[in-house]
Amino acid sequence: VPDHQKTLEQLKSEWEDCEKCELGVRRKQEGGAFVFGEGQPGGIMFIGEGPGRVEEEFGRPFIGDSGDLLRNAVMKLGLSHYYITNIVSCRSCSQAYDSEGQPRFRKNKRTGLNVPIIKDEPPSPLFIAACLPRLYEEVYLVDPVLIVALGGEAAKTLSTERMGGITAERGNTRPMDIPGVFHTAKLTPKKRVWRRKQKGEYVTPTEENRVSYLMLPTFHPAYVLRRFADRSPGNPLEMYLKDMKLAAEIYDRYMLEAFGTHPAERNLSYEDVMEDSNATV
Ligand code: URA
Q1: Ligand 1 centre and the CA of 7: distance in Å?
Q2: Mapping DSSP to helix (H, G, I), strand (E, B) and coil, where does residue 65 land?
Q3: CA of 86, closest atom in ligand 1
Q4: Long-range interactions of 24-31: CB distance < 8 A, separation 24+
Q5: Torsion, CA 134, CA 255, CA 153, CA 239, rounded to 10
Q6: What's the 67 CA to ligand 1 centre distance in angstroms?
Q7: Which residues line ligand 1 (CB under 6 A)?
Q8: pTM of the predicted structure, to 2 decimals
Q9: How many CB atoms lie within 10 A of CB 39?
Q10: Cβ contacts of residue 199 below 8 Å, gap of 6+?
Q11: What is the pLDDT of residues 52-94, one digit of tens each?
């Protein structure tokens, strides 16, 4: 099946046994889940860094604490047309060691057994590179109006242009190009012809078609949670909520221009998010 006719389910089944990098090998050894995206294509696409412990256990993106903050904001904004995925589909983590180089353990409250402490870590460029073809195809099939990159790592990976730090770059849309499925015939640079002779055979040079999307970088919800108590002007939660609102506005503008759909009333304030939050401020 040519990939422009592929479905997201097919893409998932092509990748769910992947062992292209160490993350996949570890996932298989530990019996963890491959975490593919979920949601509705064609709306806002949220892209995080990679699954954590809870996501790996249940095989769904953003269902732990960071997921609560993301899904809460999306719900309070009244968005139903969205899709959530990650840069890498397998959990990136390693065993924690103490200063003497000994493995660290914690006591499981339920069983009383000592279990190794595993800490999440950002996926290395090698792991990201191995997963990028899956991500690009997922973006192509979801074909979103807007991509929201959650955190600096996701934004840097997705941005076509060079990016500075997330604090400076968040809140500003930028282009993101991905490879398309078609190839476009290219004029040869010297003679300006479509075909040229190569080793006695005629060849038609082509170039890969690129598809351009709009990307909005914002803070990762996990970072926002770590700074949840911060109430200084321009604090991470305030900026994160502002970016979420902007994403909804961009989506609404597109729906109005393309389909004449009038936007719903969308409110998102501290109070909205705090209402459901257990976090102490
Ligand atoms: N953090 C991420 O970046 N992705 C998830 O799916 C969960 C937490």
Answers
A1: 23
A2: helix
A3: 4
A4: 24/90, 24/130, 26/90, 26/91, 27/56, 27/90, 27/91
A5: -160
A6: 7
A7: 48-52, 55, 61-62, 64, 66-67, 86, 222
A8: 0.90
A9: 20
A10: none
A11: 999 999 999 999 999 999 999 999 999 999 999 999 999 999 9
